[in-house]
Specification:
By secondary structure, this protein is an alpha/beta fold. Helices cover 39% and strands 11% of the residues. The protein is built from 8 helices and 6 strands. Strand 4, helix 7 and strand 5 form a beta-alpha-beta unit.
Length: 229
């Protein structure tokens, strides 16, 4: 048993705090359909790392459409579709309860995302939740996206805690790997487009944050954590 006390919980953003992965996929489906095409979510679509893959996907569509492809118009169509969808987007089920419970337990909270700071703060600000997190660390502040552990290490440094004093909550395999490489405990809640087998290395896997109270989640980790409260 490891008797290190957990003092912080660090959340991924996209697909974990908010379901921006569904709006991403639906946005690209919308753009593909405008060209009379069906989007297939095979290996090319998910490159296995965090960060912005817009150019990667536009390159794929350009190859399919040919010389008539208007890159700027397609990107604008995609972004407008997602903006409209995001107007009503809230936290994923159970997340608000976990944040409330973290506060009651005296746990510090952070976001560690491969997305840029403007993106994360815009969404958190829309739902009045920027102040729910002690620390926000983002992809534009580090040299490489997940699975590189840099953004988690940045969050830990800003929190002033060691890896084994923190739990990372992630929705992808590359996120779980990044957190583990930063020395953190890992809880996986795979998003709708992730095969649960891809997050099998996590210390604990759930179907939703609504599945268990946060205190019970922490007590199930291999650390044998006794939560505060």
């Amino acid at each position: 048993m490891v008797d290190t006390e957990i003092v912080a919980i660090v959340f991924d953003f996209d697909g974990l705090l908010m379901d921006t992965e569904t709006t991403l996929v639906d946005g690209w489906r919308h753009v593909w359909a405008a060209h009379g095409l069906d989007l297939e979510l095979d290996g090319w679509f998910w490159p296995g790392n965090g960060g912005n893959c817009t150019d990667h996907r536009l390159d794929r569509l350009a190859a399919l459409v040919g010389p008539t492809f208007d890159r700027s118009a397609c990107q604008a169509r995609y972004e407008a579709y997602r903006r409209a969808r995001h107007e009503s987007l809230d936290f994923c089920p159970g997340i608000r309860d976990w944040l409330d419970e973290a506060a009651r337990l005296g746990l510090r909270t952070a976001v560690a995302s491969s997305s840029p700071r403007t993106w994360v703060r815009e969404h958190l600000g829309r739902v009045g939740a920027v102040d729910r997190f002690d620390v926000i660390a983002t992809g534009d502040e580090v040299a490489a996206p997940k699975p590189d552990p840099a953004v988690f290490r940045l969050a830990l440094d800003r929190l002033g805690v060691a890896g084994r004093q923190a739990v990372a909550v992630e929705d992808t395999g590359h996120g779980v790997r990044a957190a583990a490489d930063a020395g953190m405990w890992t809880v996986a809640i795979p998003n709708a487009f992730v095969d649960p087998a891809q997050v099998s290395a996590a210390d604990l896997t759930l179907t939703s944050a609504a599945a268990l109270p946060l205190a019970e989640v922490l007590d199930q980790l291999p650390s044998g954590l006794a939560t505060r409260g």
